[in-house]
Amino acid sequence: MKRLSKLTIKLLALMMVLSLVAGCGTQGTTSESKSESKTVKIAFLGPLTGSNAMQGVGARNAFQLAIKQANDSGKLAYKLEVVDLDDASNPGTGASAAQKAVADPAIAAAVGHWNSPVAEATIPIFKSAEIPLVIWGAIGPKLTSADNYPYVTRVAPTQVQENSPLAAFAINDLGRKKWAIISDTSTYGKSNTDAWKNELAKSAGTEVVSVDEIQVGQIDFRPILSKIKTENVDAIYFGGVVMEGAMVRRQANELGLNNTLLVGISGILDDKYIETAGSEAAEGVIATKPGKDISEMTGGKAFDDAYTQAGYKEPYGAYGPYAYDAANIVVEALKQAGPDKKALVDAITKAKHDGLLGTTTFNEVGQTTNIASTISVVQDGKWVAWDASKYKSGERKLPGAK
After folding, report:
1. Cβ atoms within 10 A of the Cβ of 84, count?
2. pTM value?
3. CA 134, CA 131: separation in Å to the nearest integer?
């Protein structure tokens, strides 16, 4: 019995040692596995449902493409995960989405918004949580400011930066001097009205004949358009977004204003605009979009090919390249600073990113210093760069052209 007891003790001791060794080995494997599988999340916010969904979904797709390419590169110490959050072009919905984002400790940064009123609603939430927000599409001039810096940066130009070249083109190149303005009552619409009036005031001989406000969601614009018809203006400036802008153009044609030019900035530059207005009514509408045409962007063809190969069904739209570059700016900042939010904020504000848009840096309030725009016109049911259009060559005449 004594011998057996000693043998049993030895066996038990050996089993304990082996168990400890195995346990250490298991702990090491688990630790390495956790390190290898560490995930850092980046939130994307935009209109993924509703009337402006085409803008948001196209930008979201481009954003996802950038993150996928970053993950596939093998150059990151962790896996990136996109968290899609629908703001539905609604400030209340956007605020709820932002609250959801800041409540997730794995979300290190956010890239968001096509609508300025939505961005206005979410910025205080991201600032309070000290999470960096890179704006990809909202262009209200006050979104980037000393108050919001350094937590808010923007890769897109402001409304003023979009309206200025469009006004110069419409006044100087097209000779349109007598204007009616229609804008929605949102801060976006009001800022557009102010920007357009200020641009017209810079040119002698221009005149704002009338200014009318509409509601987002309004569908009948005939009373306003009937009044404008009596004013014999050279052109109408529309300072809203896709659906209302399309209905204004369609109803203007129905009332016999088909020979009155309509112009606007990137808020109407979408395929959905043409679809809703009808290709005949939309023909000759002019809008400016931020940035160069994709064919003129460095790496534009490679981006376009990669987007197609990824199988996205929706077009990336005017702001797809902006969402793509915004994603890559965050990725580069993560490479430098890691997911620590304070270090990440600093790395984003100091970014010098050579991307689709050219070289993007931010000024003292977080606004991009990389500004470019492209004038486009609706031709045969498609948005076409003005310089490549039949209107530029003289083969066709714009509404009201003499």
Report:
1. 15
2. 0.77
3. 10
Q: What pLDDT is attached to residue 26?
A: 35
53-73 helix and 300-309 helix, angle to the nearest 10 degrees: 100
Structure token digits, residue 26: 């298991």
CA dist 242 and 240 (Å) reads 7
- Structure tokens belonging to residue 201: 């005031």
CATH topology of domain 39-157+294-371: Rossmann fold (3.40.50)
128: left (phi over 0), alpha (psi -120 to 50) or beta: alpha
Q: Is the pLDDT of residue 343 over 60?
A: yes
Instruction: Give the whole-angstrom CA distance, residue 38 versus residue 189.
Output: 43
Are domains 39-157+294-371 and 160-290+375-393 of this chain identical in fold? yes
On the question of a cis peptide bond just before residue 150, with omega within 30 degrees of 0, the verdict is: yes
The helix or strand, by DSSP H or E, that contains position 227, with its residue range, turns out to be helix 222-229
Give the pLDDT of residue 120: 97
- Integer Cα distance of 211 and 237 in angstroms: 10
As a CATH number, domain 160-290+375-393 is: 3.40.50.2300
SS3 237: strand
What is the bridge-based pairing of β-strands 39-46 and 107-112? parallel
Domain boundaries, the chain: 39-157+294-371, 160-290+375-393
Nearest to 120 by CA among 94, 146, 159: 94
264 exposed, middle or buried (CB, 10 Å; 0-12, 13-18, 19+)? buried
Give 334's DSSP letter: H
| Residue pLDDT, tens place only, 347-367 | 999 999 999 999 999 999 999
DSSP for 30-97?
A: HHHHHHHT-EEEEEEEE--SSTTHHHHHHHHHHHHHHHHHHHHHT-SSSEEEEEEEE-TT-HHHHHHH
Q: What is the pLDDT of residue 24?
A: 40
Mean pLDDT of 359-384: 95
The fraction of the chain above a pLDDT of 70, given in percent, is: 91
**Spatial CA neighbour of 378 closest among 247, 293, 261:** 261
User: Is residue 366 within 8 Å of 152, Cβ to Cβ?
Assistant: yes
Which residue, 305, 288, 287, is CA-closest to 356? 305
Look at residues 244, 221, 225, 243 and name the one whose alpha carbon lies nearest to residue 233. Answer: 225
